[in-house]
Amino acid sequence: MATSTLDRPAGGATAARGPVRRLSAWLHRHAGVRLAALLAAPLFWLVVAYLGALAVLFVSALWTVNGFTGEVVRQPTLDNFRTIVTDEVYRTVALRSVGVAAAVTVIDTLIALPMAFYMAKVAKPRHRRWLVVAILTPLWASYLVKAYAWRVLLANGGPVDWLFGGPGSGPGYGLGATVLVLAYLWLPYMILPIYAGLERLPDSLLEASADLGARAGRTFRAVVLPVVVPSVIAGSIFTFSLSLGDYITVQIVGGKTQLIGNLVYVNIGAANNLPFAAALATIPVLIMVGYLVAVRRSGALEEL
Amino acid sequence: MRTGRTLTALAAVGLLTLAGCGDGGTNAGGSGPGGIKPPKIDKLASLGAGEGQVNVVAWAGYVEDGSTDPKVDWVTDFEKETGCQVNVKVAGTSDEMVTLMKTGEYDVVSASGDASLRLIYGGDVAPVNTDLIGNYKDVFDGLKLKQWNSVDGVAYGVPHGRGANLLMYRTDVVKPAPTSWGAVFDANSPYRGKITAYDSPIYLADAALYLMKHRPELGIKNPYALDDKQFAAAVDLLKKQNELVGEYWSDYTKEVQAFKAGNSVLGTTWQVIANLAVADKAPVEAILPEEGATGWSDTWMVSAKAKHPNCAYRWMDHIISPKANAAVAEWFGEAPANKLACAQTADKNHCATYHAEDEAYFEKVWYWNTPVQQCLDGRTDVKCKDYAAWTQAWTTIKG
């Protein structure tokens, strides 16, 4: 390809300075263009990589697969969604997944609140850093190692059974074990936002509340809670969405339980039915969009 | 707040997409057995010089060059002898293998019976000129020219090895010892919650096999060819079984651990899992129940678009040579395909343990096959359920 000389600024310091300066002067006058040039790359990334991928997901959910050769048939049809809506099993699995995600979120909140409060307000300031490190350390270990460790802990006659009084007395593998292990895995994602939120709460407010005669409970309700609720919701976005999409933990400790993630995985891995997997994957997307719309009023999105 | 509005808009678009689109075309029916011939592809006429490399799609453990365990190596010598560098791509499922072979980037594949037919009829693999493969004559006759590796007497691959899905039980818990698959389907089983089953749609065939023997009125002739009524009966049986099942397994290490701990005491297994469990001091035994069983028989196939056909043929000849076939059979835990391999195994009892020479044993084994709409048992008056239907049913069974 021949390059035209008009495409390139002519060489030489003095010649180059002219157009550059004129360009910068022009940009100075046009603030909108300046902003557009600055944002073009990240916006392009956002649109192509995130929204583009979502759009492809929606579109491919409308296709089907030839049962024998496994080729994708690119004819739009609502068959996949009809199956999901009419077949009871998908409703059951979707509800179960939401239930697991909600239970994990509640458990994590209940454990994280006192822990984060202790870290932010009770512990000595020089200990705080180490407590944060201690909360973060489990994240260094592989997810799989932790999940398989729980499989051993929960095994028949394992340590958890022993705590409950002998082989077979513990929860064993199943839905309960799934909730337990997911709650363990995602706990740091709940503690950290709450800790960050509480750290911003000045100690003087707590002292003022005490000076005005409020007991601990009243102080918690009137002073701490309003500050901490957006943080809890921010943390819940992590725990909820991570639990909603999980399919590995449930395979390891879930017994025969299946969640949405498993169905997506099975349709990609075993059935080679990408369109149906895409249709299934829109369920958690819609749930999360609904959740985010619901929580945005709380101001939690600013806490992330 | 703008983010919120965008999200609402997105949600609305999603819902409109759900609600707005009309009826589209129906699922295009499969082609395949039942009159339809595979695309005409010529087999290699004569063996030429090697191309310097060969690209292989294989199950884990089928192509070992010593990088997993220095003692486990049947690739390095092959590379030295033939000058064909082996590039291996490990696939986790039959469907992944089909997808990989469709790219045309790979020369050979170790296909199980639930992938091989799709590859043949998809025109992805070529017939194999068995005259060019010196070791083919020593392969057990029970494996040659079968439904899953040939069409109309034309071989599409070289048998690799085979195994059966067995019934394993804890000898200290399950008494009396089971002799029938009925043990895992018994609604009043005392082992409720401790029964396990293989986590794949192909497990429907196990239920169909049981029904074949115990509900003759259903007329099941082949557990991979099920019409609506037979399919419904198999699904029903597995739904009832679901209440007894503690967990489903697809990862063999998981099953070994579950049997060792006692979370599972009764259920399907592979011979290799039983051996590992015994080595782990778990009191288990694995049997072939009186109804027979499902199983697998793998086939090395050569791509229709192979860029290195001469090295591919050399690889197929090598992998079923007595020594290599013995090594891979021992490493993976299956019966070798080559008769002479039995003399080459490190454990002299290997072939006996895996029933390699026991045709009577394998006559009771229904190898994995791809269920398609055109019934595999030859019926033409009904349509059978295809693998996509099996997959969706499997989801429903697990609930």
UniProtKB/TrEMBL annotation, chain A:
What Pfam families would the database entry show?
BPD_transp_1
Membrane spanning stretches:
35-63, 98-118, 130-153, 173-198, 219-240, 274-294
Give the membrane topology, semicolon-separated if more than one. Answer: Multi-pass membrane protein
Task: Tell me yes or no: is Isomerase among this UniProt entry's keywords.
Answer: no
InterPro entries linked: MetI-like (IPR000515), MetI-like_sf (IPR035906)
The protein's location, in the record's own words, is: Cell membrane
Please state every residue range assigned to the domain named ABC transmembrane type-1: 94-295
Report keywords, A-Z: Cell membrane, Membrane, Transmembrane, Transmembrane helix, Transport
In the record, the note on similarity to other proteins reads:
Belongs to the binding-protein-dependent transport system permease family. CysTW subfamily.
Record's protein name: ABC transporter permease
TrEMBL record, chain B:
Alphabetical list of InterPro entries matching this protein? SBP
Keywords in alphabetical order, please: Signal
Among the Pfam families in the record, one is SBP_bac_8
- Kindly give the CDD domains that the UniProt entry links to this protein: PBP2_polyamine_1 (cd13588)
Keyword Signal carried by entry: yes
Q: Does Signal count among this protein's keywords?
A: yes
User: Could you identify this protein by its name?
Assistant: Extracellular solute-binding protein
